[in-house]
Amino acid sequence: MKKNLLFAFILSVVSVSVYSQVQSTTFGGLWHDPNTWIGLTVPGENDDVIINGPVVQAYTSGYAILPVHCNNLTITSSGSLRNGGYGGGNGIFPVYVHGSAVNNGIVENGGEDALKMFVYGDLTNNNIWMPVETELTNSGNHNLSLLEGMTFGSKIIVNSSTGITALTDLVFTCDWYSDGYYNRSHLMLNGHIFSVGNHSLEMRHCLVNSGTLTGDFEILGTFKVGYDVSDTLKFNGNITVTDTLMANVYGGGYGIYKLRINGNLLNNGVIMDNMDTKAPLNDDDLEILITGDIINNRHWSCKYVKLAGDETQHITQGTDRFFDSYFSDLNPESDIVAQSNITIMNDLNLNGAHLNMAGDTLTIYGWLYGGAIENTNLNNGFLNNIISMGGLSVNGVVTIENNNIFHDYVIVNDTLQSIEYGGGSITYTLQVRGDITNYGLIRNINDGDLLSLEITGGIDNHGLWENAYTKFSGSQQQQIHQLPGKVFQTNFTDVDSVSMVVATSDLKIAGNYNLLRSTLEMNHYEIDISGHLYNGRVNSAIIKNATLSNITASGNTEIRGIVVIDDGNRFYGNLLVTDTLQSQVYGGGSYTYSLYNFGNIENNGLIRNEPTQNESFALYVQGDIINRGTFTNYANYQLFYLNDDVHQVSCMNNGTTNWQFEGADITGAGAESFSMISGGGIQTVPPGESWEVSVQFVPAGSVFTAQLNIHCTETGSLGTIYLIGYNENSTVGVKDPGVLNEQGNSLMLRNYPNPFTQGTTISWHQPEKAHVVLKLYDFTGKEMCTLMDCDRSSGEHRFNYDASKLPSGIYFLKGWFDDCTSAWKMLKM
């Protein structure tokens, strides 16, 4: 049971003396004078001595100081033991106690010179003990006892081969008076063991020079570590600091004093360095090496804490407390488990160890490096070589250097940023092997020292995202989401060419997006990008303000803002322009940029050449052209195939007065292969109404190019449409781009006749048995009906469809054949 002073260890010793007993008179006298002793016999080392009065050790012979001896020594409350005067300089008068000493009176130096006690056995002090030195010497252990309220003065020297043991709480002052001056020294343990037990220990203005203190003891008063800066003092046991544990003053420059605790450390007081407020450069530091658990309930500001345990170490911090220390772990295989929030004002070097925060907050104002953290709420810190597991929440300002990997998930509630390099510019990469959600700020520290994120999971942005690079690095499908009104101020890259990123919201990107041959599935959400979108596939996108190059767009695509076309772009599906579609600035002469759209195009905005340098923009359309806006671009082409042989051109009057169409005609070398099968006549079109023409391609001769001339001054560059026919079937446009082929046989849907008036026959070829679903859609994509939903065997199939009740117009037939699909356009007259 721990007491309030220092240590408690109870040992009962029952002994029977076989030595003769010699008592002093109450008048006392000189030790070597027979008149001092009852019986007139000067005691020797075989005699037990009881001092009842003032006894003085002043035994000399000439200039030699001679020792006096006894076995056990007892000084009563009326007794005292002092030295006499030497008279020939400074002298130390020795007293050898070959047994144990019990002091109930006074043991101290005389008016001049000094007294030294040699004790071979136990030492008990119940009053004043202040000789110049007390040397505990022999091959056995020494038990020390102290009456409450008393202290052990004197420089205490342990020369025993086994050490000393506390039987009570102990207070050491190690002080004495000599020649009228007050002096102080230390407990010279000299590398031996001090068994404190579970008693309290107070080293009042004195030190323990070296050795090991054992027991579950409590530190009262001020215990200073650091008699010898090259030595390590050891505590074996569980230690409680109730008052102060601190470093000593080195006195010879800067010193680091070391204390090793093989056990737990509970701080309810102060653990600190020796701070010289008058000369801060002379501060001396305390380094604690500990193998057990740490609990800090008050003030902790020693310079270094080193975790040295082989087993799991736990660390706990009281509310509003912190560690103003540099922490490090000496065992790279060890585990550290936090049992509360932890605040470290300096660095934490894990040195390969594993820190499990168990969902609590780690606040660190220095570096966190060289190990693994788990289940952590991280507040502040500079990170290097850190692996995070089990999720990480970023609070405060977390700064990234090199070789950091965050697993599972990351939530940014405050700031995640790169570090300042200080010697040029550099890019720091953070790997996030999981999802990342941002509610705060992700940024570069400056324009030269950049942060790059490599993310394998999903991205959800609710805050400010302003780093240089964000890379999708997952091999599985990744999702991206953005809160309305937020912006990704970053450059996106997908480093896995076979991966897919799926948008679950509109996206606004102030930067570039390099798909690197991967797929971005927009799910009909808007992607607003101020830079380039390039080198990959984009599905079902609303594209705003991007510059496109080498983009394959599938599904229906809508253009908003000003979308600029560079080289290598192909759109598969219907294209809707609601704002501006134009060419790129070439910058080195003249150049024609082309866009191929394998599907219908509806223009409700502006299609034009680049306006500052008039770089030409050519539009190739395998489908219908529906104009409700303005065409001023260089040229427009309409593509026809044997299996996609009818296309329509529709021009709506978007003005305020009537438009006059003077009809249309087809001219050119291959004009005989094209015919207007409906519309195209002379017509006055009021505002809001449309003029239409349908053209069919039937190969004739060997030339399949011509011009459709629309005679109306308001149609802009759409007044001439260049017709290109191919004497072959198309494998794009009428089918989804990913339609599978089996053994060279395409699952291509057809119908004949096409156009038709009443009925038509739908045909297809199946390479193998499949479940077949056929559905019919109108031009807007509305499902009209299901024609078939059943299993079909392999081979050629035909289905007669009665379309007499269908209104005239363009329709799309789509078929599903197990995992394969096919589509076909039909025209009802």
TrEMBL record:
Signal peptide location: none
Transmembrane segment boundaries: none
Gene3D superfamilies reported for this sequence: Immunoglobulins
Listed InterPro entries: Ig-like_fold, Secre_tail
Boundaries of every Secretion system C-terminal sorting domain copy: 752-814
A UniProt-annotated Pfam family: Por_Secre_tail
Name of the molecule in the record: Secretion system C-terminal sorting domain-containing protein
Taxonomic placement: unclassified sequences, metagenomes, ecological metagenomes
